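Appendix B. Chain record.
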Amino acid sequence: MKMLAWTAAAVLGCALIAAPASAHAQGAARVQRQDRNRIAAEEIAQSHAANVYQLVQARRGMWLMRNNHTPLNTTGSGKMLVFLDGAELDAVEDLRQIPAAGVQLVEFLTPAQTERRMGKYTTVGAIRVSTRDETPRDSAHAAHQR
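Structure tokens predicted for this chain:
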């Protein structure tokens, strides 16, 4: 009987120790999933990409696959839009002309985000490249950006 009690206590103790670790791992996975649409300065610095196209191809290749024409996106609005510091570029291929070393952030925008933030309509989305530090200076500025 004592052996059964000790076994139950040991199992319960292991469960209590493992639960916070599991919750922490799930929280980290959630944060990682949120960042799948962004390549931040730290990740850019770790890459060996010469230009932004190579960076995106190596780190978030699915972004580029969205630009492939299919029967569903053959209209003009089915083109992946590209922005550099707010200015629209001509094509995804223009990312090859942007050195990765000078970039602070590369971000994939969904069609809704593209329309809301950039004022452009697309059924595919956009890649937004920023060479400037976009860290909010104060909380009022941060609230305005959201």
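Further analysis of this model is presented in Appendix C.
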